[in-house]
Amino acid sequence: MKQLDIEAFVEVLGSLKLDAVELSEILWLSKYMRTNKKYYTPGKETKSRADSREHRRPEDKPPPKEKEKGSPPPPSSEKRYQDEGRRIPLSIGGNTSVGTINIAHKGYFEDAHHLSKYLTPFREKAPAKRKSVFDEDKSADYIAHTGITIPFFQPKKQKRYILTIFIDCGHSMEVWSEMVDTYQKLLVHSGVFHSTQLIYFDSDHTETRFYRDKQKKKVFAPGEITNFQHNRVLFVVTDMRSASWRRGDTLEVLTRLYRTTPLFIVQVLPYRLWRGTLLRQASITTLSTSQAYPLNKNYNSEIDYLLKSPVLSDADNLKLPLINLDLSYLKIAGKSLQAKEGNRIDGAVFDIKHYKSDEVSTEHSRLNSQERIERFFANASPGAQELLISLSAVPLNFPIMRMIQEKVLGDTSNIYLAEVLNSNLLLKQSEMYEFVDTDDEEGIRDILLKLLGREKALDILYKNSEYIEDNLNTQFSFKAMLLGDVDLEKIDFEPNDLIFASISCRILKSLGRDYAKRAGCTGTIKTKAIIPHSKRFQMGSDDGRDNEKPVHTVTFNYDFEIAPYLVTFEEYDLFCEDTDRRKPHDVGWGRGRRPVINVSWHDAKAYCDWLSDKTRETYRLPTEAEWEYACRAGTAEKWSFGDDEKELDKYAWYDKNAYDKGEKHPDYGTHPVGTKDPNPWGLYDMHGNVWEWCEDDFVDNYKETPIDGSAYHNQKEGEKVLRGGSWLSNAVDTRSASRDGSNPGSRGVVIGFRLLRTLPS
Question: What DSSP string describes 488-555?
Fold first, then answer.
């Protein structure tokens, strides 16, 4: 520092016309930046770097140093947050570089370098209650007046605000996750706040669930948030679309916190998409306040004259200030927090007294597939329309949808994908998305495929098939199938294989010509089969109902394989399309990987015949003995996992975890196959979800039934056997030995089936 020309340095700073905040930040940064570079060489004439550069001739510039052969590559830049770090030259005046610092990549926020300026209103200091520092002025003044040396102390000044960020983890927020993650890290690492706290909440359920971690393992109670020192600020990052927002539970929790703590909604969606959120129930206006650190009651709005009513009080109106992910809005929030002159902020005013649960309208649920698509096209941007049509050609999960947007639209922004996810045309099931289907001959995917065009659909699927296969980790290869160079019989299909193969076959079938023949591969899509491990077992139960007796030995003299999953809507719909049958109704619960329901015994037999014809294999319904043998999986207890009913929730969807929740609960009804644990032989949903048709005629006991595993048939038309119980059944009906019967023409929301195939001897 001895060689530094102070006068030249001051002159350069003066020419930059910096304000006090910018100047202090530069000096602070220069103090803490790390570098081994020497800026000044001892013994040389002290001269400003700008002067030396100004008088250097171009030919005096030293040639670039050649890179030595075999020299190691330069070290990679540091990585901070989740973005790639870059080394940025720090300059003072002109192009004079005086060092380098590591900063985070701007990524989603082009104005991240202005963050410190945007957060200026939050830099307010407050006296600490437990820490004090020497008061130099007061001590010196006392000594000057009295001549007595007595030290005086004053409370230490510290950063005032504690920031708590609530982050919505509902499935509709998935598209914004990376951007929100960067946003919160910019705030956490800004150094402006006394401390920061992150709270994650799951809004996909009717009751909001709060957590301390993103993995949702550590539960958090909002009541733990206190604000005795009036220094806490709440940010809620959300799109206000999920179930708990619509039902009002999340709003109720935040309203309680808002009574003592300032709160700002960080709405991730742009204004034109607010109609699809809870904000459609609010009056959007402008808020202002004359009270620093304002709460709900302290805000004034431009529509206050409309809100004044003899039957309404201020407590009936909830005024939520709104900002978005644009960093410049932080300054607006800060001005509102300090009630600075001219503070104005967007706001939503809710009438709490007359708030109604904002469930999806019954009008929308009555629309058919064509009407739903038309409604989306009437409101969506052209980019979102093109993206939705293109997505009809591929299996749907979040990475695949983002990849298609980038490939088709050449756009990596979030907005088009957000429009599609908020369209009410997609339903998330586990990690995959499915198009919502109504009880129409043409589903949403079918209509969109027609709009896309057969050749374009094939082009999209072909060009992106390798990425899809890697992403889904499938054994199924679309290109191999297209070339006829694959033996599907040798593939053990998993659920993701089935989804990918079904879409592929649908597209090939639409192309006609030779492709239609390969669409017959839908019939060869079979799940991984289970082969019996022995030839004999004890059937029935001495402790059960009368129709489960007597216990008897069944011996098989043949081998068979049984599917580990129930037949799904996705599989059954292909059968309906190929045979021009009316598709069974899904009661609004969704199709895809849910077990097919509303099918009679005759429907199930017809599906088996169709599949057998397609594959030249013999598929059929299991006999009652085959079914119980497979269900028990070598066990003799009440259930395949033992006798403890408390364990049933791990293996079955039944009345306690499905029906008893009520019709408005998301767990009410059937569930996608394979979402509970399998039995010891890897068979899913043998207990609960849906009753399963068997080949046999129903009889009141086992006194005359076969002991060789074949089906029992009597001479008269009667009921057919049902096994396994359903989502509506009590625990007793889900036991391995439990049995029931129904008319073979019966259809219902609790009845489905699974496949079995006899193996060649």
Answer: GGG--B-HHHHHHHHHHHHHHHHH-HHHHHHGGGGGG--BPPB--S-SEEEES-SSS-GGG-S-EEEE
Of the ranges 70-74, 329-333, 361-365, 382-386, which one carries the lowest mean pLDDT score? 70-74
Residue type, 78: E
Q: Residue 406 carries which side chain, given as an amino acid letter?
A: E
pLDDT of 690-730, one tens digit each?
999 999 999 999 999 999 999 999 877 789 999 999 999 99
Dihedral of alpha carbons 249, 251, 257, 259, sign: negative
pLDDT in tens, 322-358: 999 999 999 999 999 999 888 999 999 988 776 655 5
Q: Is the dihedral of CA 83, 89, 90, 92 positive or negative?
A: negative
Contact 411, 383 (CB under 8 A): yes
Task: Single out the residue of 273, 265, 329 nearest to residue 299, CA to CA.
Answer: 265
Query: Which amino acid, one-letter code, is at 159?
Result: K
Q: What are the strands, taking DSSP E only, across 124-208?
A: 125-134, 153-159, 162-168, 195-202
Cα–Cα distance between 692 and 567 in angstroms, integer? 10
Across 268-296, b (16+ Cβ under 10 Å) vs e yields: bbeeebbebbbbebbbebebbbeeebbeb
CA distance linking residue 575 with residue 503, whole number of Å: 14
Burial class (CB in 10 A: 0-12, 13-18, 19+), 315: exposed
Evaluate whether 728 touches 589 at the Cβ level (below 8 Å). Answer: no
Whole-angstrom distance, CA of residue 736 vs CA of residue 725: 9
pTM of the model: 0.55
pLDDT for res 94: 37
pLDDT of residue 51: 40
Please give the structure tokens belonging to residue 592. 């895809």
Residue 509: Cβ within 10 Å count: 20
Assigned token pair, 120 = 């200026």
Token pair listed for 134: 């020497």
Is 173:155 a contact under the CB 8 Å cutoff? Answer: no
* Long-range Cβ pairs for the range 425-431 (8 Å, 24+): 425/372, 425/373, 425/376, 425/388, 426/396, 427/590, 427/592, 428/171, 429/590, 429/592, 429/593, 429/594, 429/672, 430/593, 430/672, 430/675, 431/397
The C-alpha atoms of residue 303 and residue 752 are separated, in whole angstroms, by 56
Residue in the structure block whose two tokens are 């109609």: 275
Give the rounded distance of the alpha carbon of 255 from its chain centre: 25
Reference 725, options 696, 759, 761, 685; nearest CA is 685
Amino acid at 198: L
Instruction: List the strands of the sheet with 560-562, edge to edge.
Output: 560-562, 756-758, 619-620
Q: How many helices (H) does the chain have, and how many strands (E)?
A: 24, 26
Q: Which two tokens stand for residue 92?
A: 């003072």
The angle subtended at Cα 760 by Cα 757 and Cα 761, nearest 5°, is 130
Tell me whether residue 510 is exposed, middle or buried, using C-beta atoms within 10 angstroms of its C-beta: 0 to 12, 13 to 18, 19 or more: middle
Model confidence at 482: pLDDT above 90: no
Cβ count within 10 A of residue 22: 13
Q: Which residues pair with 650 in a beta bridge?
A: none
Structure-token pair, residue 537:
């077992």
Dist CA 659 CA 670 (whole Å): 9
Tokens of 207: 């009751």
Cβ neighbours around 252 below 10 Å, total: 13
Q: Give the DSSP H or E segment for 758.
A: strand 756-758
Place of tokens 């790639």: 84
Q: Is the distance from CB of 236 to CB of 264 less than 8 angstroms?
A: yes
Q: Which strand ranges, in their side-by-side order, compose the sheet holding 691-697? A: 739-742, 720-723, 691-697, 751-752
C-beta of residue 232 within 8 angstroms of C-beta of residue 202: no
Tell which residue, 482, 518, 475, 519, has the closest CA to residue 497: 475
Determine which helix (DSSP H) or strand (DSSP E) holds 696, and give its type and residue range.
strand 691-697
Model pLDDT, residue 48: 39
Quote the CA–CA distance of 201 and 167 in Å, as a whole number: 6
pLDDT-based confidence at 632, cuts 50/70/90?
very high
